[in-house]
UniProtKB/TrEMBL annotation:
SMART domains listed in its UniProt record: CHAD
Superkingdom per UniProt: Bacteria
Span of domain CHAD: 210-488
Name this polypeptide is given: CHAD domain-containing protein
Gene3D superfamilies registered for this protein in UniProt: CHAD domain (1.40.20.10)
Coiled-coil region(s): none
Lineage: Bacteria, Bacillati, Actinomycetota, Actinomycetes, Mycobacteriales
Pfam families per UniProt: CHAD
Origin species: Rhodococcus aetherivorans
Length: 488
């Protein structure tokens, strides 16, 4: 019977460096050993370890004779994550492309050598009588130099265990027992870099208490960290000339919703400041996103019209002008990335990952559940009022539904996955309907401007823009009424 346990585990040898007696691991199996390559890595960071605070890595890696050396950048962030590999034989000169990509995460501070790692390998393999692999252990001798005010050098042995496809539970038990007898234990660190920095610069991961039970601080810490990570990863994408506008704004919305739904759990002054700065940055991104959405939206609407009512160069006018406007607003975003205000925002977000300014308001499950119930009641009340005469009612309802959705996302471990999934689907549907209302409102403003200009531009006609304007008014009214129905 094959083993169902994890196929790969990294162990740390005892502090004495004791290693198992290899012939005793699986005595009845054929044991083969051979040396592996030596590889070397040079990690760069600022003096303040800014990249480390963003859980990001910039290194020069020489993996040995069989692979190409070069520079590597790794920035987490889900769909916005970055992994770049640039071949190079120069370990002293960081490519400009990588320096520019991390300029936001580093705050523009100079990069220096932070840690060097040298790793030597020795491979052990065990085969059964049919020559099938049972287990492989790679013994890695790691020498790490941490460079700071004074350099510190450390050496340790780690053992990477991989079970073969022919391994059974009995084989795994025998291997792990032999490792335990030699004093080896599962490695407490995710990587050699974390091990090297553990004594002088502990991992700056999300600020969550230990233990298994979900708590307010644990869930807030994990959720905040994921959103802040997405915002930082979006910064890297922008600097690389890519388009992270929508997912970055989603991260900002989730973060701001959390600050508001659980406002009592955060220090008021810092919460208010961060909310305001996130609103500023989201607004800049929103101008770009609105043009992206409207270019596609209005082009699709235009295609549904009979040719005889499309008068003048409407399609080219919509596409050309909205694209130019989008690029103008994108230029404003890129200029903002180099502003002191934005640098202060990113620095604050990095601090919030590890030291969120939490109050002593409470840490039990009831704190989370009570806030979720309040967010849901507010959302449904405002959605029911979305059909009122008040023009601001749909916007208030959309934002309240958004906060309720994200609150349920955060509280899913408490609510239960099935129940949470059902609630999230409901609020997502409301969001989409009211988002349609907002898109129509933005479209009518733009179409009014296009129509006015067309009326005074030779060779153009405002008729089609007026027709599209009327269709958008109807779409907005339908969305308003549909949303109110969804609240019942």
């Amino acid at each position: 019977m094959a083993s169902s346990a994890p196929a790969h585990t990294t162990y740390l040898a005892s502090s004495r460096g004791d290693l198992p007696r290899w012939q005793d691991i699986l005595p009845k199996a054929r044991h083969v050993e051979h040396p592996g390559p030596e590889r070397h890595s040079i990690y760069l960071d600022t003096d303040d370890r800014d990249l480390r605070h963003w859980d990001s890595i910039l290194r020069y890696r020489n993996p040995g004779p069989d692979d190409e050396p070069g520079w590597e950048l790794a920035v987490p962030g889900g769909t916005l994550g970055t992994e770049l590999h640039l071949a190079s034989t120069d370990s002293d000169l960081v490519p400009d492309e990588l320096t520019a990509a991390v300029a936001g995460l580093t705050g523009g501070r100079p990069l220096r050598r932070s840690v060097t790692l040298g790793i030597g390998e020795h491979r052990h393999e065990w085969y059964d009588r049919k020559d099938r692999l049972l287990a492989q252990i790679i013994v890695e001798t790691v020498q790490a130099t941490v460079i700071g005010r004074a350099a510190t050098v450390e050496q340790w042995h780690q053992l990477d265990l991989d079970l073969g496809t022919a391994a059974t539970k009995k084989h795994r038990t025998a291997v792990t027992a032999a490792l335990a007898r030699a004093g080896a234990a599962p490695a407490p660190h995710r990587s050699e870099l974390e091990h090297a920095l553990a004594a002088t610069d502990p991992a700056p991961g999300p600020h969550t208490p230990t233990g298994k039970a979900p708590t307010a601080r644990r869930m807030l810490g994990a959720y905040l960290d994921a959103q802040i990570e997405a915002i930082g990863a979006g910064d890297v994408w922008l600097r690389r000339g890519l388009d992270p506008i929508h997912p970055t704004r989603v991260g900002i919305r989730r973060l701001r919703s959390t600050l508001r739904v659980w406002q009592d759990l955060f220090e008021p002054a810092q919460r208010t400041w961060l909310d305001s700065e996130l609103s500023w940055y989201s607004g800049l991104l929103g101008h770009v996103r609105d043009r992206q959405v409207q270019r596609a939206r209005l082009a699709a609407a235009l295609e549904t019209l009979p040719p005889e009512v499309v008068m003048g160069p409407v399609a080219s006018r919509l596409d050309t002008d909205l694209l130019a406007d989008e690029r103008r607003h994108l230029d404003e975003v890129l200029r903002a990335l180099d502003s002191d205000r934005y640098r202060m925002l990113l620095a604050a977000l990095a601090r919030w990952r590890t030291q969120p300014p939490l109050t002593d308001h409470g840490d039990g499950a009831r704190v989370i559940e009570k806030a979720v119930r309040t967010a849901e009641r507010t959302a449904l009340s405002r959605v029911r009022a979305a059909a009122d005469e008040d023009e601001a009612a749909p916007s208030r309802a959309r934002k309240a539904a958004e906060r309720a959705r994200y609150a349920v996302e955060l509280a899913a471990p408490l609510l239960g996955r099935t129940r949470a999934k059902r609630k999230i689907a409901r609020y997502t549907n409301i969001q989409q309907v009211l988002g349609e209302h907002r898109d129509s409102a933005v479209a009518t403003d733009l179409l009014r401007e296009f129509g006015a200009r067309a009326g005074t531009t030779p060779g153009e006609n405002g008729f089609t823009f007026g027709l599209l304007y009327g269709l958008e008014l109807q779409a907005a009214e339908r969305a308003r009424r549909h949303a109110a129905d969804l609240a019942t």
